[in-house]
Amino acid sequence: MHPNPLFRTENRALMEALVDEIGFGMIFATTPDGPRVAHTPVLWTGDGAIQFHLARGNALARHLSGMTALAVVNGPEAYVSPRWYADAAQVPTWNYVTVEMEGRVRRMDSDGLDGLLEALSVRNEARIAEGETWTMDKVPSATLSKLKAGIVGFEMEVQAWRPTFKLSQNKSADERERLALGLDAQGSRAIAQLMRDVVG
Length: 200
Prior knowledge:
30% of the residues lie in helices and 35% in strands. By secondary structure, it is α+β, with helices and mostly antiparallel strands. The chain has helices at 12-22, 110-125, 141-148, 173-185, 189-199, and strands at residues 24-31, 34-44, 49-55, 68-80, 93-107, 151-166. The protein has a single domain (5-170), classed as Electron Transport, Fmn-binding Protein, Chain A (Pnp Oxidase, Chain A, Roll). Pfam families: FMN_bind_2 (PF04299). This is Transcriptional regulator.
């Protein structure tokens, strides 16, 4: 989390929306073998938890249940050039959005894992505009059982949220718009739009 309180938010709906929209993150924990990180799809449950799955052979999978872990979901980010300011006597910076979530992790049972996989596929298949929707029943049951045996499902009850929405809040509205236009021109439209929508 960035130390400047200007870059924080208490807007829980905004944080939840980011986690839900991005749907991919990193899980960090300290294990007996040292600190480890896993990259995984995440599913916001809507009731204060995230769910995810790891390959059974992942360095975190055998230690994670019962631990307190950190999940991080990164949103849009972009380099901000000093040339976009009215006064060019500035230094470069980076605007970015990220949400850190800390909580206790539990291992899911087989039914929970089935529900997670179904929810992930339904959610992400709905984002594809063309073609026939893929469903898990298209995979032979023996093949699906074999594949599921290679992964472990987890749920983290989020106990602490630590967001950073660094969107040039320390600059004037005119300066922010100038920066947003520069970012737009460079193709960084998502972070530019967040600068307009979140900060105003």
